[in-house]
Amino acid sequence: MFKIVRKEELVPSSVILHEIEAPRVARKAKPGQFVILKATETGERIPLTMADTNPETGTVTVIFMVVGKSTAIFSGLKEGDAYTDLIGPLGRPTDIEKVGHVVCVGGGTGIAVLHPIARAMKKAGNRVTTILGARSENFLILKEQMGALSDTLIAMSDDGSTGRKGFVTDALQEIMATDKPDLVVAIGPVPMMRAVSELTRPAGIHTLVSLNPVMVDGTGMCGGCRVTVGGETKFACVDGPEFDGHKVDFSGLAQRLNAYKAMETEAMAAHRCRMEAQMNQLEKQA
């Protein structure tokens, strides 16, 4: 059993943080890796990339959005309750090295995934610019934490309720024109990662994305997480979850996700449509 030692609602009833006792995982985990959680013996296996780890206290932190039955069950767990299973660390860790100017782009709960990566990039001696995006101020998570480890922080929101009104690609485009990055790391909704990759492609800026296809076992056996990268079939659980954004077949990924996607809220659907429209515009410009 893996006890929850801290629970926080980052967005009430929507985005939840759990800090969980898992000392062996905490000692081994690296930025970019994930765990698979089960709330009960017969529950669904849910992969979640770790937002933080603490080897000293033996805990790992995950942040998730409540989007279906299993994550609703997760959100119902309280401090002192425990997950039946926690498996990890899984996946290939982020390749952390000093490259110069790193721009970290995060959207939605992807900001949680980006957090340990940005911290490690800064620790490696890079200059880190962070761009965070959300529908509104209420949905922008970890802003203070990301600001503390970044040289520059830019917040973007659809409605202008926090930071600047617009998309993360608007801010990235401005940075590329005046202070070209050596590396871009983009993590968030698929339309956002695709739009970022299309924006950086003509400039030849190496761009990493973290993919979230359907995953069951986390060892490459089920094949549910297969994605096409550079014309080859890869498994996100063992070959990823990070890949070169310029090589990912985002259309194929979107089709697979849509086949299993839970019902969207009206606001989520509108946000996705706006991002897809911007991505199409960027492709035409390229």
Q: In angstroms, what separates the terminal alpha carbons?
A: 51 Å
Low-confidence stretches: 262-268
What CATH architecture of the largest domain would you give? 3-Layer(aba) Sandwich
Q: Determine the structural class based on helices, strands and strand pairing.
A: alpha/beta
What radius of gyration results from the CA coordinates? 18 Å
Number of domains: 2
Strand count, sense and barrel status of the largest sheet are: 7 strands, antiparallel
Q: What is the mean predicted local confidence, pLDDT?
A: 88
Number of helices: 9
Major sheet: arrangement of strands: 6-1-2-5-4-3-7
Count all strands and give the number. Answer: 16
User: What percentage of residues falls in helices of 4 or more residues?
Assistant: 25-40%
CATH topology (fold) name of the largest domain: Rossmann fold
Give the name of the CATH superfamily of the largest domain: Nucleotide-binding domain of ferredoxin-NADP reductase (FNR) module
Order of helices and strands: EEHEEEHEEEHEHEEHEHEEEHEHH
Describe what this molecule looks like in 3D.
It is a single chain. The chain is an alpha/beta fold and 286 residues long. It folds into two domains: 2-90, Translation factors (Elongation Factor Tu (Ef-tu), domain 3, Beta Barrel), CATH 2.40.30; 101-285, Nucleotide-binding domain of ferredoxin-NADP reductase (FNR) module (Rossmann fold). It is 32% helix and 31% strand. The protein contains nine helices and 16 strands. The radius of gyration is 18 Å and the shape is globular. Residues 262-268 have low confidence and may be disordered.
